[in-house]
Write a structure and sequence with these properties.
Elements (H helix, E strand, L loop, with lengths): L4 E5 H6 L1 H9 L3 E6 L2 E6 L10 H10 L10 H10 L12
Parallel strand pairs: 1-2
Antiparallel strand pairs: 2-3
Length: 94
């Protein structure tokens, strides 16, 4: 079942963007219009699957990883994640 959709003007969206985001966080889709024509749609982001850090550590342990949880661990992990950012389904314009 699709959530509620609201239609607001561009000027309303700009003047109170904080309230617009509050509505979107509740699951409401917002169509922003200029002179009655849609120019943008703001909708809640889809939840992405993820893994807890504790699960990542257990997985590393099970693979006999030499990773060390030191001050640079977060930086190292970010580098690993950023090195695999290719889209699984490239957009149609690519």
């Amino acid at each position: 079942m699709e959530k509620e959709t609201i239609h607001i003007s561009e000027s309303e969206a700009v003047s109170d963007f904080r309230s617009l985001l509050a509505q979107v966080r509740k699951g409401i889709r917002a169509v922003i219009e200029n002179d009655g024509r849609a120019v943008a749609v703001v909708s809640p982001a889809k939840s992405l699957p993820g893994r807890l850090l504790s699960e990542s550590i257990a997985l590393a342990d099970s693979h006999n990883s030499a990773a060390t949880l030191d001050n640079s661990f977060a930086h190292d992990l970010e580098e690993v994640l950023n090195s695999h950012r290719e889209p699984l389904s490239p957009p149609s314009w690519d």
